[in-house]
Amino acid sequence: MVVLNFTLSEDGVAVLHDALSCMFKFSDDVCLEARKDKLTLSTLNVSKSAYVCFTFAANRFFSRFNFEGNAQYRERFACQLYIKSLLTIFRARGGASDASRENASIERCDVAIDDGVGRKSRLVARISFRNGITASHSLPYEVKAPTHAKFNQQEAENSWAISSKTLRQLMDHFGPGIELLDINTDDENRVVNFTCFTEKVQKRGTTNNEAVLKKPLHTNIAVEMDEFDDVSVEDKMHIIISVKDFRAILQHAQITSGELATSYSNPGRPMKLSYGADGVLCEFILMTVGEKDAISQRHKTPKPNAAAKAATPRPQLDSTSHRASSAQQTQAPPAAKPPQSKMPSGARPPPEFDMRPPPPPPPAAPRSPGLFVSQDDDDDDQQWEPVNPEEQEEEEEEEIVRLEWHTNSEPDPSAPRISSYVRQPTKPDHTTSPDRLLSGLEPTQRLSDVRRFGLFSD
Amino acid sequence: MRFKTDLKNIRTFSKLTAALSSLEKIAWVRLDDDSVRFTVIPDTGSQVWASLSVDLIFENYNIQSNEPNNTINLELPLNPLQRALKSAMGSNHANLRLTKRDGIPMLSMTIHTLTKDPAAENNSRHPNPPPRFPRDHDDEYDDPFAQSDLQAELQMRREREKVITQDMPVRVLHPDTVETIMQPKVREPDVHIQLPPLLQLKAISDRFTKLAMTTSASSSSANRAEKTNPKLELSANMHGNLRLRLFTDALDITSVWDNLENPELDPSQLTVPVEQHPSVAFREGGPDKWATVRVDGKDWSRVLSVGRLEGRVIACFVDDHALILYVYVPHHDDPGGVEDVVTYYVSSYSA
């Protein structure tokens, strides 16, 4: 029995893909939650220090959205999926030339979730291309209630908002090797400071003097308050978050080019960042570094005493309840108890947000398209880079292709770059060529064209 | 000890830093009244001595030191410097000063910049809109710039200058510690020749190096060190030829350039009379009289990364002994002025 089905336009597929690739920087799996009026994708990272939630409005984002529900899932349906498989399905297709892009462009994408007693639980995505090809994908999933982080909007008295594009460009000035971002205000000079630093440095006066030189660049960016849309922050308040998370958010935020709004209370309490685009609301809740953790925390606000701490509940993760902040905009399911009832501490050990230990370093996978690693985005500076022996092993395959001194298919011989060869789909060529020979049929389409229809897995 | 200066020619400075950092992570920087010198000496590989006049990259230069000759010696990591210079590129104003943060010496770069707005950037590329013509149709002429100008102006009003501070760690060196570091002394070269465009030379050299490593994968592991660090043979004569050769068990490939220039020697710069200079014998020896050195392919590739400076490069060969490159850094703002020289002592191997 179909629980949910919806249809996306080509643009909708792209937006969904952007959202998923943003989430993929935080976690490997995503919770999909469907209701009558909206679809929610949410995830929590492994160290439970960052929570991501994208809400797609049923009537604005989708060409068609139909939540049927069934006896088992009357109000909402939730399941967990691997982001990686979703990314493959909703990935952007399109060729180098306009003609092939036109051919391979998506006409519509129908997604249905089939569930119920005695049925295989499957998410089926059917993508119809303008050239008449239809690709169907069927994904298994796990029925699982999502974990939502709570955020107390009343408590968060500090806030600011700024163009996400501006903020994203500022981040370019931060060098590699930094972990933490300290955001603080200076009322006297009417500026907001963004300071990047790391705690992974040797203490002063160590015997090894060389170590001093290994410290990463310490960067501070002062932005005039006038450039913000509204700043309401306690003077000299330092709030510290993970740079990696912040970068991941900004990379997505700049696509939507909206205004990024934040709100937060005190160090050690969560911070919410949000921005919206056409029918999509993007919310992030990040745990900030507590005062005791931040060595270089130099803020002058008095420490909140223990009593105050006990009174204000720590943020909790709850598998059934909803974020307090979003409670007003969603109707709570009958199954879930009101969030307030869970608030008093002591009932059970709350698995709280925790910044320490820090999340494991991100795998150096190509999935994060080097937002800040590139040292030289200069015109053609790449060609001055020395031969890199480390790359040699991985590039073996490309190397051999390279040695042919670009015989064919190189559109612009004046720009011989390794990347242009990497993009050539060499593997499917090898695997499919014998078949073609056996069948004795003349190829009617370039393999690189067919490849975009998702007939081959990557 | 004080050091403070405004930066100029940030692009050139950044390219020099990039070239140096491909050889070594940390540079020794020596500042005095007239010159700034960058030296990198890797454990293995080629060393570089770059001596620049202060006004190539600095202006409003201010230095005060108790050390002899008003000198400051610093040890500076190049990657942070390169990163900071990248921030400074396209800025309105940037300066550099020696300071202390939490008692640790820092080289602090303060940059006043705007975030790049695509619309504003297009506009700034054409500070003077092209003249509008024909003049007589001015009234009904639909100015395509009017709209964007207005937009840019609105952007600018909103867009505030940001102040970016990039603090790089440095170590101040005592004069005694640098006293012993001497610039290598090499005898008069046998052959001096202007190199072909470095991008070309680098592309071919890199291809040779990669070929040597690729072919080594299939052959025996007998001399593995030789295989993973392939050597290229580089020769030149006094008749405008440069020869690059790769010679392995499986391969023997050669690329030859001709019609290159063997610059005239300046007698005033020589320690020996011109006619006794070794290059005279090589010139008389004819086109088959080659001066040859062997270089490490990977190291050579790092050396050639200096090509990004777009300077003229003279290579001096001491047969079977040494190779020195003199890279003349062009002064873009003063084309006729004195050229600064970056000297590469390329590590070479005997056959």
UniProtKB/TrEMBL annotation, chain A:
InterPro entries the UniProt entry points to: DNA_clamp_sf (IPR046938), Rad9 (IPR026584), Rad9/Ddc1 (IPR007268)
Protein keywords: DNA damage
Annotated Acidic residues bias: 375-399
Compositional bias segments (type: Basic and acidic residues): 400-409
BP-aspect Gene Ontology terms: cellular response to ionizing radiation; DNA repair; DNA replication checkpoint signaling; mitotic intra-S DNA damage checkpoint signaling
Chain intervals for the UniProt region annotation (Disordered): 294-443
Cellular component annotations (GO), alphabetically ordered: checkpoint clamp complex
Biased composition (Pro residues): 347-366
Pfam families according to UniProt: Rad9
Low complexity composition-biased segments: 303-313, 324-345
Family statement: Belongs to the rad9 family.
Function summary: Acts in DNA repair and mutagenesis. Involved in promoting resistance to ionizing radiation and UV light, as well as regulating cell cycle progression after irradiation.
Protein name: DNA repair protein rad9
Species of origin: Cladorrhinum samala
Organism placement in taxonomy: Eukaryota, Fungi, Dikarya, Ascomycota, Pezizomycotina
From TrEMBL, chain B:
UniProt key word Lipid metabolism: no
UniProt keyword terms in alphabetical order: Nucleus
Region (Disordered): 116-144
GO cellular component terms listed in the entry, alphabetical order: checkpoint clamp complex; nucleolus; site of double-strand break
Main location: nucleus
Family from the record: Belongs to the HUS1 family.
Identification of the protein by name: Checkpoint protein
Organism: Cladorrhinum samala
